[in-house]
Design a protein that fits this description.
By secondary structure, the protein is mainly α. It is built from 8 helices and no strands. Helix 3 runs parallel beside helix 6. The radius of gyration is 20 Å and the shape is globular.
Length: 293
């Protein structure tokens, strides 16, 4: 009798555990000198800040030293999966020949783990029974794809699988937001003044909200899947019931002690400890312009 498949990973396994990883996020990806990274680094080359213990030597000063991009990256647990499961704890530093295969495995497992995180989040919502069953099957199928050795992982078509699962996530979003709010899917709203705009139950999937002013905005049941919140001002915003809000989005934004967060998210240490300053409500004309974008 063949062994039963392992159960899908829980929420804790879908968070980065750097103590069980071989610093893969500091080695595998490439990054270019920019506002997010102080240096150029080619793919497959270890960052000069990576220590022999696979820990970042400037972890507590990343923002000050010009590496804010590192502070918002999350592997969704793929790093420890590759290090401890796929390669059974074999360190690429002790066996350099394994690094290319580790990089390939990481490139497959990271998007699969991200997808697992979204499906797991969807299953916490109040959904119709048939949709919940479909999501549970999709979660089990996605988890099964993460198993196996590097040779197996090379055969996984991540894009095709994601195309099959994403419609279920969209259905879950629509069901949870019903009746839906404004549709800003993929909207380009960098620097937009959205104070006073009703974004409850809104779809902000993939929206570009870099530097947007969301102070005091109620984002209850708004879907922020893939929304770019880098530098967005969330001081005093209500995010307690925001859908698909990932910790890395909070880490990329600005907030304060009055920003309402879900119980499962943490307040980033760079957020101000000062309470929200009074928010000047925009004029009706300004609010209307924000809605039309």
């Amino acid at each position: 009798m063949s062994p039963s498949p392992a159960p899908p990973p829980g929420s804790a396994q879908l968070r980065a555990d750097c103590g069980r990883c071989f610093g893969l996020c500091c080695v595998v990806p490439a990054f270019a000198r920019s506002a997010d990274f102080a240096i150029d680094k080619p793919a497959g080359q270890a960052c000069p800040n990576l220590g022999p213990d696979h820990r970042c030597g400037i972890h507590t000063e990343l923002r000050q030293r010009g590496f804010p991009g590192c502070t918002v990256f999350d592997c969704f647990g793929a790093g420890q999966q590759v290090s401890q499961v796929t390669f059974g704890g074999r360190d690429w530093r002790d066996a350099p020949e394994t690094l290319p295969a580790m990089a390939e495995a990481f490139a497959v497992l990271r998007p699969l783990h991200e997808l697992l995180w979204y499906v797991t989040e969807a299953l916490t919502l109040h959904l119709p029974a048939d949709l919940r069953d479909e999501l549970a099957r999709a979660r089990a199928e996605t988890a099964a794809l993460t198993e196996g050795d590097p040779t197996h992982l090379r055969t996984v078509d991540v894009a095709a699988h994601r195309d099959r699962v994403n419609p279920l996530l969209s259905q879950a979003s629509q069901a949870a937001r019903s009746p839906g709010g404004v549709d800003h899917r993929g909207a380009h709203l960098p620097g937009a003044d959205l104070r006073g705009v009703d974004l409850r139950r809104a779809s902000l999937r993939g929206a570009l909200l870099i530097g947007a002013d969301l102070r005091g905005v109620d984002l209850s049941l708004a879907d922020v899947t893939g929304a770019d919140l880098r530098g967005a001002d969330l001081r005093g915003s209500d995010l307690r019931n925001t859908l698909f809000l990932h910790q890395s989005q909070l880490d990329a934004a600005r907030g304060d002690v009055r920003t309402g967060l879900p119980a499962t998210r943490t307040r980033p240490p760079h957020w101000t400890a000062l309470p929200l300053t009074p928010v000047r409500q925009p004029s009706p004309a300004t609010a209307r312009r924000g809605r039309r974008r």
